[in-house]
Amino acid sequence: MSPAVSEEPLERRAVISGIGQSDVGRRLGRSDIDLTVEAAERAIADAGLSRDDIDGLATYPGMGTGTPGFAGPTTPELQDALGLSLNWHDGGGEGPAQMRAVIVAALAVAAGLARHVLVYRTVSEGSAQGTGGRQGIGGSGGGGGGGVPRFGSFMQWSLPFGAVSAANWLAMVAQRRMHEFGLTRQQLGAIPVNNRANAALNPKAIYRDPMSLSDYLAARMITTPLCLFDCDAPCDGSTSVIVSHRDVAPDLDHPAVHINAVGTALRGRPSWDQFDDMTSMAARDAAASMWERTELRPSDVDTAQLYDGFSILTVVWLEALGFCGRGESGPYIEGGSAIARDGVLPLNTAGGQLSGGRLHGFGLIHEACVQLRGEGGPRQVVRPGGRPVEVAAVGNGGGPIAGSMLLTRGVR
Amino acid sequence: MRPMVANGPSLRLLPRLSDDVAFYWTSGADGVLRLLRCNSCGLFIHPPGPVCPRCLSHDVGPQEVSGRGHVETFTVNYQQWIPGSDPYIIAWVSIDEQPDVRLTTNLVDVEPDDVYIGQPVRVVFEQSDDVWLPLFTPVGPDAPQGAPS
């Protein structure tokens, strides 16, 4: 059942008026609040605003969530650091993936609760994980007795079996796709190889050395069929966007990025192992609800920035958003020409998270804005006939967690 | 010869036996798998909850199932999330009584090359402290239908 969308979707009253990103690196040795302030100041200046103009604040995922380096500063921390006086504020981890913070900010602006919302996402997982590589949950202990912690909530259904990471759960999605649709590792490898090629043109990307399909196929397995290069790169960095009322658009010294439609649905079960379709999950629902809110079609999209915490998620998003038919993403991406910067659907043009770094959804939102504003420099996409990028699609999240957005250059 | 894969991680991270799930995690004490079921409409409810999500009846309780299922998908884990682990097989197994119920589990006493999607499996329990973990192993080709092989 879909809600009625008879009037103009309210998110269209909002624009992204400014963007800013801190330094990004594997281990920067800086605090997460320091990185966040750097990104925030850059975004505020980019929007042509001053600190005193910011009257809203939002982040994902908010307080006390996840493994070390995952959550970033809370909104109270950033409010206090910048001396902000706020009309509206929100931090939370439940909702349509990481971009939920942008979506609620747009709705707050549309509702008149705030005029300029600073939205940010900060990670310091590179530093937090040190040189020991990615950590599991409870990896330093476990077992049954002796005061070792036990697990409740949803993790109790997977941890006892060593299904510790989303890598394990998504490996099973990938295996199922290989079974149902004939997806091959050679096809899947086109995602990380394409991202690496794009990352070479992004000075902030974590991994910029050339990578071939042979390199990909030779990498060590993490959890079959996913290898090292199917998994994104933990990093340190902060990304901010300013969400403002659309009436500021004429005053900007760059094209405003309009929010055309958001996708927020979760119609299947909110569960990794119980979701009805093991090959798509929540991306299917988020994408469907987004297209219900717009006259634009997949063929109107000039670039897609699709979540790649794991390569298989990008494959899922390509189908969910209708860039190819269900089950057809393998042949679509094979060889990489369709998703290259000069292809029919330039994909993850800053290197995504696989090579650009795990900026957790917000790096993709940032790059969509860069491309729509024509500020990509050597990696800027130019469409056939010299046409600029006018429509960008962004997908965030994986498994039972998904949100999507259509962003446009000017009003569509 | 040493098996290529282990039957699970080097350490079992265990669930809390809270009131709503203790029946499930201890069900294997008598060798039988039990799932929560709605006594009104018959839906198996997993993970367990206080109400049937289909008919909204609150009359729900544990019920024995055959322990038979099928491999829906699987992965061989190599990463040392839990240090000291040999590779092990994780799977989503559907329950024959209601295939939209899937259990995340380990496939045991089988090598990866012999696992396939659609493979029939049966439950075996591994006791760890006061928890009986439901694991699954392939049903032999000569096994009589409906009986343990």
Please tally the β strands of chain B and state the result.
8
The fold-level CATH name of chain A is Peroxisomal Thiolase, Chain A, domain 1
Using the coordinates shown, work out and report the CATH topology of chain B.
OB fold (Dihydrolipoamide Acetyltransferase, E2P)
Mean pLDDT of chain B: 94
Order of helices and strands of chain A: EHEHEHEHHHHHEEEEHEHHHHEE
Helix content of chain B: under 10%
Domain count of chain B, please report it.
1
Helix residue percentage of chain A: 25-40%
Radius of gyration of chain B, CA atoms, in whole angstroms:
16 Å
Quaternary structure: heterodimer
Biggest sheet strand line-up of chain A: 3-2-4-7-1-8-11-10-9
- According to CATH, what is the class of chain A? Alpha Beta
Order of strands, main sheet of chain B, comes to: 6-5-4-7-8
- How does the overall form of chain A come out from the CA principal axes? globular
The CATH superfamily label of chain A reads Thiolase/Chalcone synthase
How would a crystallographer describe the biggest sheet of chain A? 9 strands, mixed
Distance between the termini of chain A: 27 Å
Low-pLDDT residue spans of chain A: 138-145
What proportion strand of chain B? 35-45%
Structure description:
The complex is a heterodimer of chains A (412) and B (149). With 412 residues, chain A is α/β, with parallel strands linked by helices. Chain A has helices spanning 32-46, 75-82, 100-110, 125-129, 166-181, 185-188, 190-199, 213-218, 282-291, 311-320, 329-333, 352-356, 362-373; strands spanning 14-21, 56-59, 88-91, 116-124, 221-223, 226-227, 236-245, 257-263, 303-306, 391-396, 403-409. Chain A has a single domain, classed as Thiolase/Chalcone synthase (Peroxisomal Thiolase, Chain A, domain 1), CATH 3.40.47. In chain A, helix 9 runs parallel beside helix 10. In chain A, the strands form two sheets. In chain A, strands 3-2-4-7-1-8-11-10-9 form a nine-stranded mixed beta sheet, sandwiched between helices. Chain B has one helix and eight strands. Chain B has one helix at residues 22-26; strands at 34-38, 44-45, 60-64, 68-77, 88-95, 98-106, 120-128, 131-138. Chain B is mostly beta strands and 149 residues long. In chain B, the strands form two sheets. Chain B has a five-stranded antiparallel beta sheet with strand order 6-5-4-7-8, with no helix packed on it. Chain B has a three-stranded antiparallel beta sheet with strand order 2-1-3, with no helix packed on it. The model of chain B has no long low-confidence stretch (mean pLDDT 94). Classes of the chains: A alpha/beta (412), B mainly beta (149). Chains A and B meet through helix 5 and strand 5 of A and strand 4, strand 5, strand 6 and strand 8 of B.
